[in-house]
Amino acid sequence: MSKFNLVYMAKPKYGGWVSFTCHLSLKEDFLIYRITNRDEKKKRDLGYSCKYQNLSIKSISKLDNILITAIDKNFYKYLEFIPSGSYIVIHDPTEYNGPSKNILRKHLERFNIITIRKKVKLHLENKYNLKSIFKFHPFYQFEKKNILESKSGSISISRIDYDKNTDMIISANDKLENTCDIYGFPNDLYVYRKLKNTNYLKYYKGRFLKSFEELDNLLSRKKYVVDMSSIKNDGDGSQYTFLEAIYMDCILILNKKWVGENSIFKHENNCLVVNNSDELVNILLSNGDEKILLNSKKILNSYINVDWNLNNMHLEFTKIPNTIIINS
After folding, report:
1. Sign of CA dihedral 169, 173, 179, 185
2. With helix as H, strand as E and coil as C, how does the chain read?
3. Do 96 and 104 form a contact (C-beta atoms < 8 A)?
4. How many whole angstroms separate alpha carbon 44 and alpha carbon 50?
5. Tell me: the pLDDT tens digits for 206-261?
6. Is 154-304 the same fold as 5-138+306-318?
């Protein structure tokens, strides 16, 4: 059976793009490649038990069934060598929105676009007339070794960045005795501009290894996972931090700006939603409701069972007008 060849065309070594690529590779047994100046036989670590191989763009362009799992501006120069009809995943509007992304949008016209949140799918089509199919994030069920009956405390495992609103968590921590542990890869500019006059260093616990064992160690003891993400024209759906929290039996606390009317997440049903740091304080001082966790498990099933099979994906795209299909 034909399989996708995953090409990671971005610089970030941490975050949702890497998580997506690894979960998809592990779940479907797809190979991962990155673009460099020359071909390398030795494979390198991407994280989460995944390896990738460096290839030149000449070799990449000869691969069958290319699926670009992520792209940033540093790799736009290679897009012209990627065959028409290849597949590409768009994660959020920051990837394609604005004048600086014109070159990417031009190439998107000849690719088969996959969006992983319905809000992004609608925005991409309504603003740029670029059609896509929506697919749930693929979630790989990694081994859980630390299964504890009693869990307490809270943790944040997102990047430290503008769109993660880490300052809200810091502000809440200033009013709490049992503070929320903050882990993650920091955006140095955000830390300097937004957090330099806060108690950020008091609460920041550092980065963590890109491994499922480390996620298990961090989340197994915690009752809550706090994620204050908000991105314009994005939201309602999920992110890997959300899915990892649910999988590890943690109650999710989300930003109201992420949770819209059509969201799969519902306050006091399968998550808890806050508007500001004061509301976050009140939530963290409460006992929580185990029914919330049980309801959130229902959400996870869609991500575990989603079909990213190449042949089935091919059939889905044939139903969309104005798309270019590989091997059609």
Report:
1. positive
2. CCCCEEEEECCCCCCHHHHHHHHHHHHHCCEEEEECCCCCCCCEEEECCEEEEEECHHHHCCCCCEEEEEECHHHHHHHHHCCCCCEEEECCHHHCCCHHHHHHHHHHCCCEEEECCHHHHHHHHHHHCCCEEECCCCCCCCCCCCCCCCCCCEEECCCECHHHCHHHHHHHHCCCCCCCEEECCECHHHHHHHCCCCCHHHHEEECCCCCHHHHHHHHCCCCEEEECCCCCCCCCCCCHHHHHHHHCCCEEEEECCCCCCCCCCCECCCEEEECCHHHHHHHHHCCCCHHHHHHHHHHHHHHHCCCCCHHHHHHHHHCCCCCCCCCC
3. yes
4. 8
5. 999 999 999 999 999 999 999 999 988 777 789 999 999 999 999 999 999 999 88
6. yes
pLDDT-above-90 percentage for the chain? 83
Q: Where do the structural domains in the chain lie, given as residue ranges?
A: 5-138+306-318, 154-304
d(CA 290, CA 251): 8
Calpha distance 328→318 (Å, rounded): 9
Predicted confidence (pLDDT) per residue in 23-36, tens digit: 999 999 999 999 99
5-138+306-318, which class in CATH? alpha beta
Q: Exposure of 94 by Cβ count < 10 A (0-12 exposed, 13-18 middle, 19+ buried)?
A: middle
**pTM for this predicted structure:** 0.91
CA distance 273 to 268: 8
Instruction: Given CATH 3.40.50.2000, say whether it is the number of domain 154-304.
Output: yes
Q: Which two tokens stand for residue 35?
A: 């673009």
The neighbouring-strand residues paired with 254 are 227, 273
Contact present, 175 and 281 (Cβ < 8 Å): yes
CA dihedral 299, 305, 310, 311 (to 10 degrees): -120
